[in-house]
Amino acid sequence: MQASDRFNINSQLEHLQAKYVGTGHADMNRFEWAVNIQRDSYASYIGHYPLLSYFSIAENESIGRQRYTFMQKMLLPCGLPPEREED
User: Fold this and answer.
1) Residues 17, 11: Cα–Cα separation, whole Å
2) What is the largest CA-CA distance in the chain?
3) How far from 68 is each of 22, 30, 42, 56, 64, CA to CA, in Å?
4) What is the pTM of this model?
C-alpha cells in the first residue's frame, strides 16, 4: 500500500462521515453511538409501513399511535446523557 492509497482511503472515510452522521468518528463516545443507532432504528420503523404495522399489531395499538410513540422515543432514545468528567 502506498502513501497515496492511504490518503485516498482516509479522504473517502472523512467524506462518508461528513455525509452520513451515523457512521461515527474517532471522538464519538459510546452514548452518542447508541443514540444514533436507536434513532436510525426508529426512523426505519416509521418509514417502512409493513414494519410499523407489525409493531402496531404486536402491541395492540393503532398505527398512528405507534408512529407517535416512536417519534417520542426518538427524542431521548437512551435516556439522559451521562455526566461528563471535567479535567
Assistant:
1) 10
2) 58
3) 23, 27, 11, 11, 6
4) 0.73
Q: Left if phi > 0, otherwise alpha if psi is -120 to 50, otherwise beta: which for 32?
A: alpha
C-alpha cell of residue 64 = 398512528
- The helix (H) or strand (E) run that includes residue 13 is helix 3-19
Residue 55 to residue 47: CA distance in whole angstroms: 13
- Per-residue pLDDT tens digits for 67-82: 999 999 999 988 888 8
**How does pLDDT run across 11-37, given as a tens digit for each residue?**
887 787 778 776 777 778 888 888 988
